[in-house]
């Protein structure tokens, strides 16, 4: 059986969000983006819940960061920030038939679902669990640091990191894309701690590729 990545998550404080239609549209757009970019399969449930299955687990954390960035970027205001809890499970399993997503089963699904339940009792919003306890020791710690950075992003930080992940471009090119000055892009990337997040994603992808072998 293949090794896959499963993201299980829900929107933080969704019951307090007034514009449910805009929230739903944002979720739909980012899930479609992940499907197209990573050949993934996604599903939404209970309105604010979602699940994403990635055939290549090395893409799991990048997908999780893109999903959180999309929500933060679309937040209505600085006082009403959107975000999500996401538990990434990496283990054996198969990408399910889209018509039977709800019946999907396997180690990666179980690991991801259980970890999300545990996240609900903490202030953490991003976690990863694999079939290797030894690998989990390392990835859990570095993910807690990354999670703390993401949880303090502004809408502008989330926007520029999202574009940096989607487009391998220089700061000058990103500035043109956003209609901003290059120093502004530089400040926003620095505020987002982009070099650390970029290195974190490269590190976790490398470790998860090794786990897949």
TrEMBL record:
InterPro entries: Nucleotide_cyclase
Origin: domain of life: Bacteria
The protein's name in its UniProt record: SatD family (SatD)
Source organism of the structure: Modicisalibacter ilicicola DSM 19980
């Amino acid at each position: 059986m293949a090794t896959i990545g499963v993201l299980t998550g829900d929107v933080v404080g969704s019951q307090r969000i007034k514009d449910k239609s805009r929230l739903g549209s944002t979720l739909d757009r980012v899930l479609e983006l992940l499907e197209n970019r990573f050949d993934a399969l996604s599903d939404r449930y209970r309105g604010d819940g979602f699940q994403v299955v990635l055939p290549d687990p090395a893409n799991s954390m990048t997908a999780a960061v893109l999903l959180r960035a999309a929500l933060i970027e679309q937040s209505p205001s600085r006082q009403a920030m959107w975000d999500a809890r996401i538990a990434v499970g990496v283990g054996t399993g198969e990408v399910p038939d889209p018509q039977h997503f709800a019946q999907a089963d396997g180690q990666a699904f179980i690991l991801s679902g259980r970890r999300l339940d545990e996240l609900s009792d903490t202030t953490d919003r991003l976690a990863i669990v694999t079939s290797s306890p030894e690998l989990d020791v390392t990835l859990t710690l570095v993910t807690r640091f990354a999670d703390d950075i993401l949880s303090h992003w502004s809408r502008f930080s989330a926007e520029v990191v999202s574009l940096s992940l989607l487009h391998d471009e220089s700061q000058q090119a990103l500035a043109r894309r956003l209609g901003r000055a290059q120093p502004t892009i530089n400040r926003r990337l620095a505020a987002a701690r982009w070099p650390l997040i970029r290195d974190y994603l490269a590190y976790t992808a490398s470790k998860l590729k090794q786990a897949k072998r």
